[in-house]
Design a protein that fits this description.
With 335 residues, the protein is mainly α. It is built from nine helices and six strands, in the order ββββββααααααααα. It has a two-stranded antiparallel sheet. Strands 2-5 form a two-stranded antiparallel sheet. The termini are far apart.
């Protein structure tokens, strides 16, 4: 703020302004792994007797440049971090619904007004928590879009959960709070009981919707676990291929014990692969209605393994190592 040259500024002359600034990091041409330190600096137009304020600086902030895959993984972690909030919402929902059900069998008077007021307050608080949780899911999706990852699976998951929280949970709890607020204003006992029944029904619908959301999130967790097991299996198979390659460079009379160990581990890997393919197909069926992209990914992976006769090739690799046909075993393991 500019001031007159002869008088000090008064508090009435002070105003606060908030601004935004978009920083296009692309101009820095960053690469994955770069760390960018930055500060925000602001100045004003204050002037007193020819002196001006020094620029104010923020603390040093830091940006880590990560790959799209790593960013998607972080988004996924953020989505899963909200599971605890969903479980807490469900627990509170069930507790409030139980209290409303008990009110249906309570006579007018007998402290019912105070109980209704307390439950109504708890329901409105729950409504606020559900709305805040929906906003947090929406914020994850917004952050993904800002980083050009709006079409990633974690972003779509967050967007879907935010919408479902709003459409089923927030709407249901809001309806229940509205009906509870009318209970003690009606003179008719029949009308009061009807409103309590409506509140109970609305809370049940909200709880059912929230429970379905939690089931879906848990299945996503199963999908992630499946992917981790697949990566572990790939790592194990690559390790077996390297061990077989080393066997080929050893004297024939010195490899029998090592070959037996490789063959045994290859048999274990084949068993793990067979179990994993079956689990992938089962999970693909479970996810078909709720998460079609993940279901289709699992189905394609399992089909590719079946078409490539993965289990048979791994079995043949183990047999070839046992028979000291190391070139054949190495070829199969590479497949």
């Amino acid at each position: 703020l500019a001031t007159t040259s002869g008088a000090a500024p008064t508090s009435a002359a002070v105003t606060t302004r908030t601004g935004t600034y978009a920083w296009n990091l692309a101009t820095l041409h960053p690469t994955v792994g770069d760390v960018i330190d930055y500060v925000a600096e602001a100045t004003d137009f204050y002037e007193w007797r020819g002196e001006r304020h020094k620029p104010a600086r923020s603390a040093v902030m830091r940006l880590n440049v990560v790959s799209p895959e790593r960013f998607a993984e972080r988004l996924h972690q953020d989505v899963f971090a909200l599971r605890g909030g969903l479980r807490k919402l469900l627990s509170s929902l069930e507790a409030i619904r139980s209290q409303v059900q008990q009110l249906q069998h309570r006579d007018s008077g007998d402290g019912r007004r105070e109980i209704v007021e307390r439950i109504t307050g708890e329901t409105r608080k729950l409504l606020q928590q559900a709305d805040e949780t929906a906003k947090r899911f929406a914020q994850i999706n917004h952050r993904a879009e800002m980083n050009k990852a709006g079409q990633s699976e974690p972003s779509r998951q967050a967007q879907r959960l935010a919408k479902r929280l709003g459409d089923s949970v927030v709407e249901g709890v809001s309806r229940a709070a509205k009906e509870l607020g009318r209970v003690e204003r009606d003179s008719s006992e029949a009308a009061r009981r009807e409103q309590l029944e409506t509140s109970t029904s609305a809370l049940k619908d909200a709880a059912d919707g929230l429970r379905a959301m939690l089931d879906e999130v848990e299945q996503w967790d199963s999908f992630d676990e499946m992917v981790r097991k697949l990566h572990d299996l790939i790592d194990a198979q690559e390790g077996l291929a390297r061990r077989t390659s080393r066997l080929m460079r050893q004297p024939p009379d010195a490899i029998s014990q090592d070959a037996a160990a490789v063959a045994a581990d290859q048999s274990v890997a084949e068993s793990d692969a067979s179990k994993l393919m079956g689990a992938m197909e089962t999970l693909a069926t479970q996810l078909q209605e709720r998460d079609r992209p993940s279901s289709e990914s699992l189905t394609r992976a399992a089909q590719a393994a079946r078409l490539g006769s993965l289990s048979q090739v791994m079995t043949e690799s183990a047999e070839a190592v046992r028979a000291m046909r190391l070139v054949e075993a190495a070829s199969n393991q590479e497949r």
